[in-house]
Structures are given as structure tokens and as C-alpha cells.
Design a protein that fits this description.
homodimer, Tetracycline Repressor, domain 2, 9 helices, mainly alpha, Arc Repressor Mutant, subunit A
């Protein structure tokens, strides 16, 4: 009996564990579906039925995890925060070792996204920022956190090369400029349905950074 | 009789003219209402009833001039094309004569809009570009035309100072960089609900342009 009881307890624990795994998988599917749909077509334009179809879930699961659409959006933005480093930054940093080229490697990642989507999908965070920043305070804070995390990754890389810049260079401000360049350039690439605007903006940014590095190497020492 | 007939014709012409003026005024009210609402809350989030209320029109007038919501949007974007110079560019050019400072004067105009709206309204064209560029081909073309007109105004001003830049400077590309900086910086100012990001990006752009001018003045000759 004792052995059977242990077996029963084990089975019960196993069942609960399976159930937990299944629940986690369902939640993850909903978040990924939300991310993809919000990215492709915007938050307002995404319907509950599209989310359910894409996630392969029923509405009970959706409302269990996310009582409101905004709750799903908040989960999506937290998921973006968790995934920036493993999905966007680390693959670049593993491939490129020069800290300046790492920054341009990140920008090249966004170019690849434009190529794959034929300039039809922008930065997921930038899209949501322009759609939602004014009317969703909790969302706005998470959008700002996503921007900050991206900017800090760039700043960290520039700091690895801080001795190559003129001493007066404000690397926090420069890293923010890298972000504004990416966001503005992605926007124009989508409007023109062409990579030219993106490439042109990145070339200008490179010209600027090269001038700073030249100044750092000859005047700043 | 002849005199009376002429009077009747005159009255009829006058009535038609009044009717035309009234129709033009109604159409203009609808376009302005569309512009303001799309700017403030986005295209998808704007309802017919909001447009009617804001324009002070009935639905018959709206559907007479604009059978679909997209027709109104197209009229709004054409109105933006017509109004860029008189509303955005000329007031700056009348106040500032230096061609480089004119460019920063245009950027300062967007800063003023951020101040007035407490960073809650971005560039009307940029907002619509991220919301609509993918799914509305006619709209996308008009968005691109609006961007091009803005960029050309900046390029024209930079060309007035072309002898101050290094000979190799690509002023078309540089003017596009001014546009990407403005759009990216407005986006971040809205997400952070702060002017700091805007000011920081404009400072970086100024640093870059000053370096080009310095190079043009000492090395490029």
C-alpha cells in the first residue's frame, strides 16, 4: 500500500508537471502569436480570432492567461526584453569581435529583416511605440525599457572602444543616435519599399563615427 | 425683362458660387478633422463618428466627398503635401537666413510640437507610415512623396551651403539622414515622454554636420 501510495503521489506530481508544461507551452504560443501579429499588422488591427488561430488555442486559454488584449501586449513586450540579447545581440557579438563593427552588425541584422520581409516589417518595438505610446501608460514604460536595453547594448559595445573616441565623446548620446538612426531608417525603407534609404542612413552614421575615430586617433591623444 | 433675366442669372451664379464655397469649406473641414484625428490617435483608431463630430458635418457630406475612409486619408496626405512649405518650411526660412541653421530650425519646429503636445504627438507622416505602409499601396506612395518633399526642402537648403561642405559630401544622403534623425528622435521622445532623446539626437547630428563643415573649411579646399 505504501509503495502504491508513493506511486500515486508520483503519478499525481507527474500529471501536475505535465499540466504545467502544457500550460507554459500554451502561454508561450500565445505570446509568440501576439508578437508576430502585432509586428506584422499592428496592435489595433489584430483580432482575438487571429491570435487564437495563430497560437492554435481556444479562447478559454487566452482569457485564462491574458484577461485583456493589453495583458497579452505586456507579456509580448516582456518577452521582447528577455529575447533581445539571445535573439538580436548575442548572435552578432559571437560573429564579430570588433566593438565598433558589432554595432554595425546589429544594424545589419535589421537590414536582413527588411530584406526577408521585402521592407514590409519594421522594428517591432518602433511600430508599437508610434501606435501606442500616447494612450497606454503601462505599455509606454515597457516600450521605453525595450529601447533602453537596446541602446545600452550598443553603448556597452562602444565603451569597449572608448579609448578610440575623442575624450569628450558622449557614448550614451551616441548610442541613442544609433537607435534613432535605425528606427528612422527602417521607417523610410518601409515607406519607400526600398533598402536605399536604410543603407544611406547607415552610411552617414558610419561617416560620422569614422570621423570621431579619426579625431580620437590623431587629435584626442 | 432683359435686366431681370440678367439679375436672375447673376443670382443663380451667385447661389452656385455660394454652394461651391460651402462645399469647399465642408470638404476642407473634413480633411482637417481627418488630419488632426489620424495624427492624434492613428488611422485605424479613428471612427467615422469622430470625424463627423470634429468636422461638424453629417455622414451624407462625408460619403459624398470621401466614399471610403482611405479616400479621406488620401485627401489628408495630399493636403499635407500642399501645406508642407507654407506651414512647416517657409515660417522657418523667413525667420532664419543661414542655410545650415534653417535645417536645425525645421528640426526645432518638431521640438516645439513635442513641447506643445507634451511629447504625445509625433510626426503625422511618420505615424501613418508605420501604421499603414505595408497594407495600403496608394497610401504608401503618398507617404513616400511626403517624405521626399521634406527631404528635398532640407537638401535644397544644404545645397545653398554646398561650398562649405567637403566636395565628396552626398547632400541627398545627408538630407535623408536629417529626416531619419528627426523621425527616430520623435519616436523616442514619445516613448520616453521626454525631450532629452530628441535633443540628444539633434546634438549628435549637429556634431556630425559641424565636423563636415570643419573638414570643408580646412581640408576640402
Amino acid at each position: 500500500m505504501q509503495a502504491n501510495l508513493i506511486l500515486l503521489i508520483d503519478r499525481s506530481t507527474q500529471n501536475r508537471s505535465d499540466e504545467m508544461n502544457e500550460q507554459n507551452a500554451t502561454r508561450e504560443n500565445l505570446v509568440r502569436a501576439g508578437f508576430e501579429l502585432f509586428h506584422r499588422q499592428g496592435y489595433g488591427a489584430t483580432s482575438v480570432s487571429q491570435i487564437l488561430k495563430s497560437a492554435g488555442c481556444n479562447s478559454g486559454s487566452l482569457y485564462y492567461f491574458f484577461p485583456t488584449k493589453e495583458d497579452l501586449l505586456i507579456a509580448v513586450l516582456n518577452w521582447c526584453l528577455e529575447n533581445l540579447w539571445p535573439e538580436v545581440i548575442e548572435p552578432v557579438f559571437e560573429r564579430i569581435s570588433d566593438p565598433i563593427e558589432r554595432v554595425f552588425g546589429i544594424l545589419d541584422g535589421y537590414r536582413k529583416m527588411l530584406v526577408i520581409t521585402e521592407c514590409q516589417q519594421g522594428c517591432p518595438i518602433g511600430n508599437l511605440a508610434l501606435e501606442l505610446a500616447d494612450n497606454h501608460p503601462r505599455v509606454r514604460e515597457l516600450l521605453a525599457q525595450n529601447f533602453s536595453q537596446w541602446r545600452q547594448a550598443v553603448e556597452g559595445s562602444l565603451r569597449m572602444a572608448s579609448d578610440r573616441f575623442p575624450e569628450s565623446t558622449d557614448l550614451e548620446s551616441l548610442s541613442l543616435f544609433v537607435l534613432t538612426t535605425m528606427e528612422g531608417a527602417v521607417m523610410l525603407a518601409r515607406a519607400y519599399r526600398s533598402l536605399d534609404a536604410y543603407d544611406s542612413a547607415v552610411t552617414q552614421l558610419r561617416n560620422y563615427i569614422e570621423r570621431l575615430l579619426l579625431e580620437g586617433s590623431t587629435w584626442g591623444k
